[in-house]
Specification:
single chain; alpha/beta; five-stranded parallel beta sheet; two-stranded antiparallel sheet
Amino acid sequence: MTKIIGLTGGIGSGKTTVANHFRVAGIPVYIADDEARKIMQSDEINAEIKKKFGDTVFDNGILNREKLSGIVFNDPEKLKLLNAIIHPAVKKHFSSWILNQKNAPYIIYEAAILFESGSYKDCDIIITVTAPLELRIQRVIQRDKTTRENVLSRINMQWNDEKRIDKSDFVIENDTTEIAKSAVDKILKILKIQ
């Protein structure tokens, strides 16, 4: 039976970079945040978001994710409300996706809020990706063209590294691509995937 490797870490830690190292090694990878973005474009999900957050997060009927982010990342209750809409839809999509991976001994399920969402309970192994705080902040500012304050606000809404590490089987320090790749190779050897 296919084993699920949960891959998590705070914003800017480089989870997707690490996930790509696993993908190159031939392991199927599911990026929950990417799928959530696609799911958020569906009429059904947009109707739910409109019901809970109103028309102000839509521009000409199209969801403005930046406006929605501005609301939820400043209000833990609103974030819970949004997660209650998105997470069940992502979980349902993942259940369908994994059916097509029956021949893979392992798959990677990459999710920023693996623990907060409860998805970690479905994982056989958990890997946490870490990176120094300043490096994380700079990565996100560069990637999202946002402010330091916005990044720190999002970091503060997530579990800290210590909490994640405490519940993880492996930790990858992603200071550089080379360090991360080397850590992935070690994990692959331990799991006898290579």
